[in-house]
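Q: What structure does this chain adopt?
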Amino acid sequence: MHDAHPYSYYATPSVPGAAPRSRTITVTGQGILYVKPDTVTITLGIRTEHTNALEALSSNSKRVNAMIQALEAIGIHKEEIDTISFSIYPKYTYTNNIAVLAGYEVEHLFEITVKDVKTVGMIYEAAVTNGANIARELQFKLAHEQPYYQQALALAVKNAQEKAIVLARTLSLPLHDTPIELKEQTISSIHPSPQPRTTVLAASAAPPIQTQDVTIIAIVHAVFTY
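A:
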């Protein structure tokens, strides 16, 4: 990954009779860590349809209960399963540009958060086998990012210092290797991008899920004098 900002070198010319000014080298340092996630959030749901709204709701409720029981049976706790949306809306067909009510659709979505990323495949399999037919976001995360970010920040400062030293040596400048100014750029982590589109799941074994690393990035801007 390339630096967000290239390093730069500034030399202030001397002016006769003027007080000497500090000459500076400004660089950007970057630190990157790739960390295995310890938390995963999965969005799963159940969509049912029927010509009668109450029947669509009843069918959906039965499948939801079966899915939750199956998830609990493989060790997922109730507090790890949260409803994130619930909707009932009509469906229409069109004949000669005239809308005709065809039935109702019920959709119930859940977000499941677990600490063991190895259980992802089991969760999908249990959910699909017991009624789930919608999959949305799957996101790998870190429960506590700060310690990793601090490591990346230290690497960024070291990287900035190394760049300044290389510049100074190349130009034969007497560098002071402690920066007179150090600014942190607000960047912490890059999570693997979730898939925003809805996937309709078939009632068969879910596909294998590959764990993706979380990228922790720290960037600093440093000014050194010589």
